[in-house]
Specification:
Distance between the termini: 27 Å
CATH superfamily of the largest domain: ATPase, nucleotide binding domain
Structural class: alpha/beta
Number of strands: 10
CATH architecture of the largest domain: 2-Layer Sandwich
Shape: globular
Largest sheet: 5 strands, mixed
Order of helices and strands: EEEHEHEHEEEHHHHHEHEHH
Radius of gyration: 20 Å
CATH class of the largest domain: Alpha Beta
């Protein structure tokens, strides 16, 4: 093994095309190309996403390599998201990685997208070494497609101890925003308006799900019925009460998440608590966690905003640790739309 290990990371699981370069565990470049085309449709259109990935991937990789100040010949291995995600999007990243690896005769490393989100907590830069959670720790992964509580014993020893039985927390945020008539993506807008509202203005029912699992489908239905009923009586209800509605639904979702996380911490006795995934960028969730850190004696770890949403830095750092274990993929590997975290 060479003394210098340079990993190129590729992320293409949904609608963001991303590339990152990590050298000896330090992040040199992290480039993300967003796809604005989906806003017109109120959600991600898989076919359009895969086409945009095809257009974006070479310029994004080229920019990442240039930003890192390296040549492609110096790259030791390429890490890519194998799944879970949209099959068409994953195919673009996987196919590119295969061709890139074959052209340079370097190994490929497949990465589980959710594992990448969790290991984003271990990203450092040459200028700054962050505080990392100590093993074992609990990680609440919250995104548009996933809501899980993961017991993390090691970089590659992870057990899902609680998960949603239907919809994800991020989907609940986006659906609530859509019901209110807010543009896509609605989650960040709910967060924005919630800052000016009263979180206790309106009460929404919380699901009674056993153990550490979650459910958000009933909350979505209850919220839709609430908005429809109120709007029938007062067509201007949503606009007039926008801040309070956003604050109340956000408060409800966060309370559901925190109740289960507190239960998991009690059951395991673990006080090292982390969050990951796109919803971990939500300011209400972050502030609530910091409050619980003081109240319950937790040590809380929250990624930087750029590592919360989909990015390739988390894929590259996971690839780096897999490289150290010589865990390589073959050229006949295929992407997986569903890929369980082990």
């Amino acid at each position: 093994m060479s003394k210098t290990t340079i990993i190129l990371g590729i992320e293409s699981s949904c609608d963001d095309t991303a590339a990152a370069v990590i050298k000896n565990g330090k992040l040199l470049a992290n480039i993300v190309a967003n796809q604005d085309i989906h806003k017109a449709y109120g959600g991600v259109v898989p076919e359009l996403a895969s086409r945009a990935h095809q257009q974006n991937i070479i310029p994004v990789v080229d920019q990442a390599i240039k930003r890192a100040g390296i040549s492609k010949e110096e790259i030791t291995a390429i890490a890519f998201t194998r799944g879970p995600g949209l099959m068409g999007s994953l195919l673009v990243g996987t196919s590119f990685s295969k061709a890139f690896a074959m052209g340079l005769n370097i190994p490929m490393i497949e990465v589980n997208h959710m594992q990448g989100h969790i290991l984003a907590h271990f990203i450092d830069t040459p200028e700054q070494t962050e505080q990392h959670p100590e093993f074992p720790f609990l990680c609440l992964t919250v995104s548009g497609g996933h809501t899980q509580i993961v017991l993390v014993k090691d970089f590659f020893d992870m057990t899902v101890i609680g998960e949603t039985i239907d919809d994800a927390a991020g989907e609940a945020f986006d659906k609530a925003a859509k019901i209110m008539g807010l543009p896509y993506p609605g989650g960040p807008l709910i967060d924005k308006y919630a800052k000016e509202g009263n979180p206790l203005a309106f009460k929404f029912s919380k699901p009674q799900i056993p153990e550490l699992n979650f459910s958000f489908s009933g909350l979505k239905t209850g919220f839709m019925n609430f908005i429809n009923n109120q709007s029938a009586a007062n067509p201007n209800f949503t606009e007039t009460n926008k801040n309070d509605i956003c604050a109340s639904i956000q408060h409800t979702i966060i309370t559901i998440l925190m109740d289960k996380l507190k239960k998991a911490a009690e059951q395991t006795g673990i006080r090292q608590i982390a969050i990951a995934g796109g919803v971990s960028a939500n300011s209400g969730l972050r502030n609530t966690l910091y409050g619980l850190e003081k109240e319950l004696g937790w040590k809380v770890f929250i990624p930087k905003f750029e590592y919360c949403t989909d990015n390739a830095a988390m894929i590259a750092i996971t690839g780096y640790y897999k490289f150290l274990r010589s865990e390589f993929a073959s050229q006949d590997i295929t992407p997986l739309a569903r890929y369980q975290l082990k």
